[in-house]
HTH-type transcriptional regulator DmlR (Achromobacter insuavis), 300 residues
Amino acid sequence: MDRLLSMEIFVAVVELGSLTAAATRHEMSAAMAAKHIKGLEARLGLRLMNRTTRRQSLTEAGQAYYARCKEILADIRDAEQGAEALRVAPRGNLRITSTVSFGSFALAPAIADYLDRYPDVSVELALSDAVEDLVASRYDLAVRIGEPRDSGLVARAIGRYQMIICAAPAYLARHGTPETPADLARHQCLDFSYWSRRTGWRLADGEGAQADYPPTSRFVSNNGQALRQAALAGFGIVLQPELLLADDVRAGKLTPILQPYWPDARPVSLLYPKDRQALPKLTTFVEFVVARFTGKGGRR
């Protein structure tokens, strides 16, 4: 038998004064209500009620059990009301993971604006260029660069991610400007460690295809900001997201080079688990970010 239902019936019998009244409240027969009480007594190995043909009263054990049942059922109601509140209005904590550059330069300002709008929501943003399992790591949402591969997740496109190649004017003045990707073999490249472990720099070949160019590098890092700083110091050529280098390009601190060979822009997507009863904290955040980066609300 359902233990919680049995506890509710027991409390109803005590408060309403009769088994019949408790059975009526729970829309069952008096015989079934009696089975619930007997089931509790059998489970506990204690008599909870003294019964006569006209009345019933609590035993000492029954009085103690009744008090605890009241507390437990009240706690359950509070928990259910709290869960219901989560379904009604955006509240609670969102755990989000994103790539470092997009997360720090583009997503973080959007999160700040979202939190201003929804004061009952908090956000934990984890930045990493390593791809983590969304469900296993218990994230509510991930921002991923590239074509989504996990068909078990909902994917919402929010934009394109362009990588650009730049160098400081001082570096180009000393070493010259490469004209093709093959020329990079004669230059100092600032390499991103996740690429060097795989294919190197994947660039367009000028004919609509792509090719891999292992860079010549004495400076390798897993952080784009570190590579940017080395480029600004004139140490070498950097391949990093446009959003990371755009201010330096506008200020003339970095010069774009090899534009015809830049990698194709890749999609930026929000990924999150399928859930027919997704909480408002997630649904409102997704719609807010989609509108922020695409200028459109609703599903596309």
